[in-house]
């Protein structure tokens, strides 16, 4: 079986960062454990093209079926419809999951530090690089940052939303940024409500901001560029708002992103492994 070379997910973000601008990663998601249906009938082909036209640096596509209503078909369709590198956002718990992500055409795999032990994190990261694509290591605190760095991660996302309380702690994210080694592409995820938040994170040293749907963007209305699906049009509006946010920070070259809803797939993982602390 032949698989096309990866498009370079980390490189796409790094290019934007090197120009002095902030990158963002646009998300394709049908539903979430916390909010239920978001866009059950979205067209991943049309939406990925809209994101690309809006200036997105990369895509993030949910493939988990049970919690997020995603599928491998969503990833394959979105990837084929545009030139953007694609992150497979799912629960990676085995070496087979890493290999499957590459085979289906993903350019990056998500490794959630909270869901993996040290040996798994290191081995999955090495495997991803060995078979020719990137890995985004998602962390929530200093202890997980230490583990990610020790494992050799060069693309790290700090989810600002607490796993237990779901409160946003930007101060912690700001403290963690300078602790990351040179050469690490730094992603700030969740809890970004506007230009002021993004400015604080950019000043702290983050290269990418990922606003989530729960706390950022419009709550009513639609967009006639995306006919027939209100929720998809609403997601496109969020892309437009992200572009406006980056422009508000004084940047002219935009790579725009929609980030995680209610904290990322870690929320679903928490619901499975810690139902006593999971709150819908």
Describe the structure.
This protein is of the alpha/beta class and 280 residues long. Helix 2 crosses helix 3. The chain is globular, with a radius of gyration of 17 Å. The chain has an eight-stranded parallel sheet with strand order 1-4-5-6-7-8-9-10, sandwiched between helices. Strands 2-3 form a two-stranded antiparallel sheet. It has ten helices and ten strands. The model is unreliable at 213-239 and 250-280 (pLDDT under 50). 50% of the residues are buried. The chain has helices spanning 9-18, 44-53, 72-81, 95-103, 118-130, 142-151, 170-176, 195-204, 230-248, 266-273, and strands at 25-28, 31-32, 36-37, 58-62, 86-89, 108-112, 134-139, 155-159, 185-189, 208-210.
What tags apply to this protein structure?
about 280 residues, alpha/beta, 8-stranded parallel β-sheet, two-stranded antiparallel sheet
- Please provide the count of β strands: 10
Low-confidence stretches: 213-239, 250-280
What proportion strand?
5-15%
Main β-sheet description: 8 strands, parallel
Residues in helix, % = 25-40%
Structural class: alpha/beta
Mean pLDDT: 79
End-to-end CA span: 41 Å
Could you spell the SSE succession in H and E letters?
A: HEEEHEHEHEHEHEHEHEHH
The order of strands across the largest sheet is: 1-4-5-6-7-8-9-10
Shape: globular
Based on CA atoms alone, the radius of gyration comes out at 17 Å
Number of helices: 10
